[in-house]
Design goal:
homodimer, about 120 residues, Alpha-Beta Plaits, 3 helices, about 35% strand, Jasmonate_Hydroxylase-like (chains A, B)
Chain lengths: ~120, ~120
């Protein structure tokens, strides 16, 4: 489930940014694993939303938001996720980078709301 | 210029995540503004790289990495960027959210390197 980005809370919260280059081996298996991992990510406590897109070079960019760093750590250590990471490195993935970051500020704008200004977050 | 994601340094560094929904008005003007803003972002001191993709709903996801929060602040306050933000809100943009985050940890993997393990960053 994609949670609309404008429903995310005010910071602070956390984000995990995945940049993933598939190896091209067994694309069906990779897609199935991806789908399962996304479902698992969404079922973790603290899940706030995500965005997924394909980059021009065919890599996947997945940005997943969590309420805190501990939620990200729990998800990384989930037994099913550990198996997927292992299989991914053996078969499906040519390269990846995961970045865990602390969201400190957010600014937003909506043309159809009263808040039609660049609205800084509280911090 | 897209800098390959695997060339980013070890954390800490900063990231600005833009989720942008165009209004549909003047798409050529929006595209030209986007291109100019990306060039401006890349010319800022501290620029480390970026990823840009289109989300399934047609919104743009742009992730720009900088060495520090000050670089992001300078870019946000660049006179040309301020004009673009103003015009964007008046014409090109239905909605956006910008999140500024501190990258605390990174993990990476490359199948073709010796480091064929999930390698945690230094922090």
């Amino acid at each position: 489930m994609i949670t609309p980005y404008w429903t995310r809370p005010e910071p602070p919260y956390h984000v995990a940014i995945f940049t993933i280059t598939p190896s091209g081996t067994d694309p069906e298996g990779y897609a199935a694993m991806n789908e399962r991992m996304v479902a698992l990510a969404e079922s973790q406590p603290g899940y706030l939303g995500r965005e997924s897109a394909v980059l021009p070079d065919g890599s996947d960019l997945v940005v997943i938001y969590y309420a805190d760093a501990e939620s990200i750590r729990s998800w990384k250590q989930h037994p099913e996720h550990l198996v997927a990471q292992q299989l991914g490195r053996q078969k499906w993935l040519a390269r990846y980078r995961v970045e865990v970051a602390h969201v400190e500020r957010a600014y937003e704008f909506a043309a159809d709301s009263d808040a039609a200004e660049d609205r800084p977050g509280p911090s």
